[in-house]
Amino acid sequence: MIRVQDLEKSIDFYTRFLGMDCSRRIDYPKGRYTVAMLGYGYDFQRSEIQLTQNWDRTEPYDLGNGFGHFVIQVLDVHALCRYLESEGVKITRPPGPMKFGGGHNMAFIEDPDGYRIELAENRSGKTKNVLKAALSNWLPPVVLHLLRRASRRSGVKTA
Length: 159
Known about the structure:
The chain is an alpha/beta fold.
């Protein structure tokens, strides 16, 4: 669960820039909070992020030092970052090779509340299967249409 200051702004970020869909949103008037569940694919097959907005909270949350970041696999981290940057998303680490090995390109972005998200390029050799899955609406590694839009803008070709 991630506590957010502005639920609408956060839902917009995760749906528009990372291609998640909001499967449900529930108000809890007695507890004075709202939760929204976001993810990829179908409910019975997916992991979800729970965003929670406490209605009476006015000051930003302290992110603490226990939470590091979460990771989303992407097909082309450079193309996606060009698109995200053009939309004003904060990129805290530009795309490039992982510093201490691992052999993949990565980047870091921040959501509206400052939570860090690693975009890790999929180089497992399973890209064709990942593309097939994304085209079939099964567990996309960041929405294919966003990647295609970014690729068209940058001149990078995708399947």
